[in-house]
Write a structure and sequence with these properties.
By secondary structure, the chain is α+β, with helices and mostly antiparallel strands. It is built from 14 helices and eleven strands. It has two domains: 76 residues, E3-binding domain (Dihydrolipoamide Transferase), CATH 4.10.320.10; 218 residues, Chloramphenicol acetyltransferase-like domain (Chloramphenicol Acetyltransferase, 2-Layer Sandwich).
Length: 384
């Protein structure tokens, strides 16, 4: 995909000139075919110079000098490292031809000296009917050395299995979302130091009530509160209408062994941190044990996903349709930061908001994320 293919004849011509100089001893004795003509089959088979009766017009043409073969002959005899004949073209053109099974010799080049340019081969591939056999089948081919598998007769070591129903559904849903929403992302760095202190201080209290207090608990509570302040982030699009949701139904992405599922915590805006912690843990566990009801994976208005569990600094998640935004939580770790012109250690992590630019403007998305950042960094313990 290198642009400007036609603008590099000088460097590529220099490469061919150096090739010609390196093979002049061999090519000096070879007769060059006339431009645009192909040698007879007997000449191609044994490499002997073609013999033909000279016409009066041909005898009046000046032959090439004894030690200089025409450029077309030199280019026609140059070979790649795999043994295939290299016709006048760039490495990019030869790679495209190889990927599509096309013999460059069958393409008329528009470049200098008949060079096949990127535009020539792309134009050919665009115009070639899908049902037609590749040019390589129509033009004489140059045999190449067989690969390891072909030489030994051993098939490639691969396994092929059909997609599971879940994987097919995920694939369909992700493709639909990318085609539907204009995805844009904003990334904010958040200081979790204050939240971590609260979590450690209240951890035993929550454990006694059967709830594990995690960073997700605090993030979920702050996000739910901010969605009330920015209702468009909790909305959806129906044709040319905006549908504002009064309830916050929070989707929590859960990684399974063979896929991903997003159970929904209904009416999340009515729960405190303890209630959210219990609800998130409950739906996540039942998702892993396949005990969710169909209603518990539908009706979400906003989703949180946590690639940071596996060490990702941040992710760029795809929006869960028909929602218009999704929050990605990156890994949380200690990092050095500048505080009052001094270096300090703080617990930091990135939050990424993916949003549908059809409905949410960048300013609105950033205002929402700024409020989320502030809510986490200044979390009030009384919210527990």
């Amino acid at each position: 995909m290198a642009p400007g293919e036609a603008s590099r004849p000088t460097s590529e011509g220099a490469h061919e000139a150096s090739t010609a100089a390196g093979t002049s001893e061999t090519n000096a004795a070879m007769a060059a075919p006339a431009p645009g003509k192909t040698a007879p089959p007997s000449t191609q088979a044994d490499g002997a110079p073609a013999k033909s009766a000279a016409t009066p017009a041909a005898t009046r043409q000046a032959p090439p000098t004894p030690r200089q073969a025409p450029a077309a002959s030199v280019a026609a005899q140059a070979r790649d490292v795999d043994g295939s004949v290299r016709h006048k073209s760039s490495p990019l053109v030869r790679r495209i031809a190889k990927e599509h099974g096309v013999d460059i010799a069958g393409i008329t080049g528009s470049g200098s000296g008949g060079r096949v340019t990127k535009h020539d081969i792309l134009d050919y591939l665009e115009r070639a009917p899908a049902a037609d056999a590749p040019i390589a089948a129509k033009a004489p081919s140059v045999p190449t050395a067989p690969g390891p598998s072909e030489a030994s007769g051993t098939p490639d070591r691969i396994d092929v299995e059909p997609m599971s129903i879940m994987r097919k559904k995920i694939a369909e849903h992700m493709i639909l979302s990318r085609r539907t929403s204009a995805h844009v992302y904003s990334v904010f760095e958040v200081n979790y130091t204050a939240v971590d202190s609260i979590r450690k201080a209240r951890k035993d209290e929550y454990d006694a009530q059967g709830a594990k207090l995690t960073f997700t608990s605090f993030i979920a509570k702050v996000v739910v509160d901010c969605l009330r302040l920015h209702p468009v982030v909790n909305a959806s699009i129906d044709g040319e209408n905006i549908v504002y949701k009064h309830d916050v139904n929070l989707g929590i992405a859960v990684a399974l062994e063979n896929g991903l599922i997003v159970p929904v915590v209904k009416h999340a805006g009515e729960k405190n941190v303890l209630g959210l912690t219990r609800a998130i843990a409950d739906v996540a566990e039942r998702a892993r044990t396949k005990k969710l009801s169909p209603d518990e994976v539908h009706g979400g208005t906003f989703t949180i996903t946590n690639p940071g569990n596996f060490g990702a600094q941040f992710g760029l998640p795809i929006i869960n349709q028909p929602q218009v935004a999704i929050l990605g939580v990156g890994t949380i770790e200690k990092r050095p930061v500048v505080i009052d012109d001094m270096i300090g250690i703080r617990l930091l992590g990135y939050l990424t908001l993916g949003y549908d630019h059809r409905l949410i403007d960048g300013a609105v998305a950033d205002q929402f994320m700024a409020d989320v950042k502030k809510g986490i960094e200044t979390f009030d313990e009384r919210q527990l």
